[in-house]
Amino acid sequence: MKSPMETKKGKAVCGFHNAESLVELGWPTMPDIISTVEFNHTGELLATGDKGGRVVIFQREQESKNQVHRRGEYNVYSTFQSHEPEFDYLKSLEIEEKINKIRWLPQQNAAYFLLSTNDKTVKLWKVSERDKRPEGYNLKDEEGRLRDPATITTLRVPVLRPMDLMVEATPRRVFANAHTYHINSISVNSDYETYMSADDLRINLWNFEITNQSFNIVDIKPANMEELTEVITAAEFHPHHCNTFVYSSSKGTIRLCDMRASALCDRHTKFFEEPEDPSNRSFFSEIISSISDVKFSHSGRYIMTRDYLTVKVWDLNMENRPIETYQVHDYLRSKLCSLYENDCIFDKFECVWNGSDSVIMTGSYNNFFRMFDRNTKRDVTLEASRENSKPRAILKPRKVCVGGKRRKDEISVDSLDFSKKILHTAWHPSENIIAVAATNNLYIFQDKVN
Amino acid sequence: MFWYSEEVRNLHRCGRYMLGKGGKRKFDEHEDGLEGKIVSPSDGPSKVSYTLQRQTIFNISLMKLYNHRPLTEPSLQKTVLINNMLRRIQEELKQEGSLRPAFPASAPPAAAADPLGSSSREAPPAFSQPAPAPCELGGAAALEACLTPASLLEDDDPDTFCTSSPAAPARLAPPALLPPEKDSFSSALDEIEELCPTSTSTEAAEADGPKGDSSSGGPGAPQRPEGLQEGGRPEDPKLMDSLPGNFEITASTGFLTDLTLDDILFADIDTSMYDFDPCTSASGTASKMSPVSADDLLKTLAPYSSQPVAPSQPFKMDLTELDHIMEVLVGS
């Protein structure tokens, strides 16, 4: 078992935003590309995983009466190496250490627990604080060498004395060797005893206590791999019903399964698919319909899916079409061939709900991200970039010009930078605080308190 | 063959127009044309543009399957989506009556894509038929367009060698069904000579329909000169009919297929870039090859260029030509 990694809490910066426009303060550049961002259930902690297998956890400062303006700064709380690169000797291929997903467990004691996964292995990490240490042992001499027991004549009970706060991360469980394909999702069940991990073709159910066994609950691998035309792209448990989960596919479909129905949930309980719009048909229809992320609403009544050009909200009770569809960057529709050529069409954008399920957010290119208010039907495009905003300045909405005359401050489609993509975002569970990962940079925006 | 080395030089020189895979990319201001509107096959004059696009996408898809990082496993999702795309195009081509259906990515990155490593499928017999790169099958796709990357298709700049200007389609030659094999090389040459004087005659092309067929051909690389037909034709039902041989379609995507050298060479190399009309090239009209296609081909061939391949059939080709080509390939 690896020795725990410790870190001292550090200072970092924060940002503010209000409901209409955002105030931002960039984050120090992280050493590696951020590959996942996740708030814990209280919003006190924010975890990020990166391409180098590291996890960095930020903690929100307690509100201080002295610094009302700077309430809720997020500072570095813990950093540890979660996964290392591995080599699959059977296939002669490297296994990347990139953290694909992090999911927090609800807090049940003083320690924090999270699951982090790369392509093949899921690990349960315990993050705990230590602010006291025992002192007064008489078993070692001044140089730290063990004394000969014969020379110890008194019994001295060590005393706990305060020390500088240390945050330790220890791997408590390693769930390995259960996935032949690449893990794309993990989801903690509402029973807090089990969780699932999904790869391209299979979904496994685990018990947190048992690492050498997992139950396979979905298997879409065809007998003949040459007949494979569809893969699993994302999966999530229902937030309240521990028997229910959904998984999305590369063909734009979502299946809801009930684990009570059978041990192997190969037959779905519900099947969500929107009929194709014939007027929008193109060579790329299938590829752009591939769902890159699926998320239950906090209420559990809706699911949201992200495909290449849109975000859709589905009512669990209506399978034949979504109840809402939001265009993220429809101006890319005419560029699909180029985006196919440069592989951007395969980018997997994530999507998130706010705490009240009234606003949804997702990323785009050029470091833009979009928010859609489901009630007012208004939407806004914002940019996570230090160049275009001063610290603590209010972020102004951006606009992409799709043709014709370009107004000042608008950006034309042709000038978009497709290497600057925002794939990962997170929303605080109860407040208007968002975390946006832009390649190596993490931006945190907060509601301006007015 | 004089024309051949000319082509290769052009292609090599124009390689720089090829855009790198992935990474930062700004769209050209002149982007327009092909990508602007997805046309349906039923539109008359835009049928060519549709097939042009289809061809391009097909080629791009093939390139993708063979152009992945060998260090880690390629994404299964991406592989599946690309394979589906290739299958779909293949189905369409089949339905359009092509007798030489496109070769699907029958030998996709099998080695990498098969995580279980349990592939034991033999290369399908169809692989022994040198697939003419599926691309030109489509009946009416402009030849030069075969390997035109999307970006060039979107670019109307006449300075590039790409013939993607809107007026071009009329002059784009459909891919005469060309004989992919070396052994029909001379017959293809004959066709070309016959076609030359009647550059706009489609009948001639049909009549000489490539005898491409069932003998296994040599290495994909430099091959097949074909008669290029001037004058775009939206469809070539007659051409299709005149096609001899029936190639087997390999329906499988071969996730479990062992990728043999034969498969790679015979199946995947798109040699259509070498198609052109010698007559018009002399006159310098529309039949300029897309420079990028060369780059594509080079990229495809590069990994294999170091492997000595004994052609199973003798080429009727100059040794010097071969040397020149190998130079280009190795140099890429």
Automatic annotation (TrEMBL), chain A:
Gene Ontology MF terms: protein phosphatase regulator activity
Superkingdom classification of source: Eukaryota
Record carries keyword Protease: no
Keyword Repeat: yes
Keywords, sorted A to Z: Repeat, WD repeat
An example Gene Ontology CC term for this record: protein phosphatase type 2A complex
UniProt-listed SMART domains: WD40
Annotated family: Belongs to the phosphatase 2A regulatory subunit B family.
Name of the protein in question: Serine/threonine-protein phosphatase 2A 55 kDa regulatory subunit B
Protein's organism: Bos taurus (Bovine)
Lineage, uppermost ranks: Eukaryota, Metazoa, Chordata, Craniata, Vertebrata
Automatic annotation (TrEMBL), chain B:
Pfam family for this entry, one: SERTA
Annotated stretches, region: Disordered: 100-132, 157-183, 197-244
Domain SERTA: 50-97
PROSITE patterns, per the entry: SERTA
InterPro entries: E2F-SERTA_domain_protein, SERTA_dom
Biased composition (Low complexity): 101-115, 123-132, 166-175
PANTHER family (alphabetical): CELL DIVISION CYCLE ASSOCIATED PROTEIN 4/SERTA DOMAIN-CONTAINING PROTEIN 2, SERTA DOMAIN-CONTAINING PROTEIN 2
Name recorded for this polypeptide: SERTA domain containing 2
Native organism: Bos taurus (Bovine)
Native organism taxonomy: Eukaryota, Metazoa, Chordata, Craniata, Vertebrata
